Each structure stands twice: as C-alpha cells, then as structure tokens.
Amino acid sequence: MPGIKDAKCVLVLGATSGIGRALALAIHNLDSQPTVIVSGRRQERLNELAREGERIRTARVDINTTEGNLKQFVEDTVAKYPDLDAVIFSSGIQHIFDFSKPETIDLSTEFQDEISTNYISIFKLIVMFLPHFLKLSEKGRPSFIVPISSGLSIVPAATVPNYSATKAALHSLSITLRLQLSKTKVQVIEILPPLVESELHDHQGKTPALSKVWMPLKEFTDRAIEGLIRGDPNVPVGSAAQQFDQFEKGKQEAAQKFYERMLSLS
User: Fold this and answer.
1) Residue pLDDT tens, the chain, 266 long
2) Rounded CA separation 122/92 (Å)
3) CA end-to-end span of the chain, whole Å?
4) Contact 115, 123 (CB under 8 A)
5) Is the pTM of this model over 0.85?
6) Residue 116 has what DSSP assignment?
7) Dihedral of CA 144/150/153/159: which sign?
8) Residues with Cβ within 8 Å of residue 255, at least 6 apart in sequence
9) Distance separating alpha carbons of residues 47 and 259, to the nearest angstrom
10) Are strands 9-13 and 35-40 parallel, antiparallel or unpaired?
11) Which CATH class is domain 4-265?
C-alpha cells in the first residue's frame, strides 16, 4: 500500500512547533527525499525550520483567516507546487474549560478559536485541496490527507471538553472521508497521538506536571513515521493505540456497512 514514502511534495500545516515541526523534519529526511512545505502563523519560526533542510520551503498562513484567504492560500500553494500530493493537518490549540464555573468560559474567543483551528478550518482546507488530489488520482498518482486527531477523540478528557470534542469530530470525519474516497487514490491516514511533549500546554501552566507523564516527542515521531511509511489508515501511538484497540476495532467496517446500506436506498 502506498505510504508517505511515495509522496513527492508534503505540506505540513502547523509546523512551527511540536508534532508538526518534528514530522516535517522526519519526512524531509526520508530516503525518498520529498519536498516539504512548512506552514504556520510565525514566519520567523518557519524561516528557522527552513534552515534545517535543503528541500524545506515555507508558506505562511493563519488557518483561522477568512474562507477567501484560505482558498487563495490553497490556489497559490498548488500553483507553486504542482507536485503537492500530501497534506498533514497538525494545527491545534487547547483550552481548559470548567463547566462548574460557567462564568469563566470564554465563548467569544477561546471557544471559537479552538473549534475553528482544530476542526472547521481543517474541514474547509480538505475540501479546497481535494480537487487537486482527485486530479492526481485520475492520473494514477496516490495522494495523502493526514489529519492529526488525538487519543482524546476516543476517550475524552473532562478538563479539555471542547478540545476533546473537536478531535472526536476530526476522527469521525476521517472515517467518512476514507469511505467516500475509497474508489480513488486519495488515502486518508489519521494519526492519533497520546499526550506528547509539546508547547500546546504552556499557556495552561500545566507543562511541568504533564512533562512527567507525556511521551517524548522523538519517540512519538519515530512511531508515527513508521505508520505513515506503511500507509496505515490509522496510526494510533502509545496509550492512544491501547484505546483504539479497546474501543475502535470494527468501527470503520461498521461505518462501511452503514454507508453501503444508505447508498442502496438512494
């Protein structure tokens, strides 16, 4: 089965830190020598990352921008890199919400930004990149949509309820995308990380405590790359793999049967 080793040009959204940055560098170092486009809000970090590899290119974007700007970003990227055949969606933010203190929940900014970054903008970008990928499919070329959800998409954390919900939505979307695109050469590979070493938690003040239990970033990256190279439909890592085995086995097949039933009724 084709895997990320077969990609010629990979765009990594959310590549300025953490998982996105580590995956971008690991993919750049594959023997297949793909071009890697790193993308994010902070141009200075993108420039720093570009100095790490000769085939790393930069493309700045804030995925919380307008739909028109997202569309322009996609059009510009495809025009500049016609060999683009993989997009990894690593952008994500996380906020703590306490429903026992509803007055502390910021509905106008934190809630909206979390939903937009973790799900809505990713949904829009997938829709916008698909015409290009479907054209590659017609030419017999594989391409890859790689959402990064979370083990929290399977077993939510009560301290981050909205984050868990957005990752559950992305996980569900990955299953249905895979079904609808099954007759094309567009592969959907979902990465499900456990708690991983990251800047994601810095603004929460939780990093010192979480650093005692999280998976080191290098260990996670090594395991995730193995699944990406194989082209596994799902790449759960660490505790997320245990949760996947316990709660998710058979879900894709069940969704496929339901999908086929719905198609037979239409």
Assistant:
1) 899 999 999 999 999 999 999 999 999 999 999 999 999 999 999 999 999 999 999 999 999 999 999 999 999 999 999 999 999 999 999 999 999 999 999 999 999 999 999 999 999 999 999 999 999 999 999 999 999 999 999 999 999 999 999 999 999 999 999 999 999 999 999 999 999 987 765 656 566 667 778 899 999 999 999 999 999 999 999 999 999 999 999 999 999 999 999 999 97
2) 10
3) 31
4) no
5) yes
6) I
7) negative
8) 175, 176, 179
9) 44
10) parallel
11) alpha beta
Which of 145, 137, 222 is closest to 189 using CA atoms? 145
CB 13 within 8 A of CB 88: yes
| 3-state secondary structure at position 262 | helix
3-state class (DSSP) for residue 234: strand
Domain residue spans in the chain? 4-265
H or E stretch at 146:
strand 143-147
Instruction: Please tell me the number of Cα atoms within 13 Å of 81 on its side-chain side.
Output: 24
Beta-sheet strand order (sheet of 186-188): 56-60, 35-40, 9-13, 86-89, 143-147, 186-188
DSSP state of 97: -
Residues whose CB falls within 8 Å of the CB of residue 195, separated by 6 or more in sequence, listed in order: 151, 210, 213, 214, 215, 239
- Measured between alpha carbons, how far is 48 from 40 in angstroms, rounded to an integer? 12
Exposed, middle or buried, 263 (CB in 10 Å: 0-12/13-18/19+)?
A: exposed
Closest CA to 235 of 193, 200, 195: 193
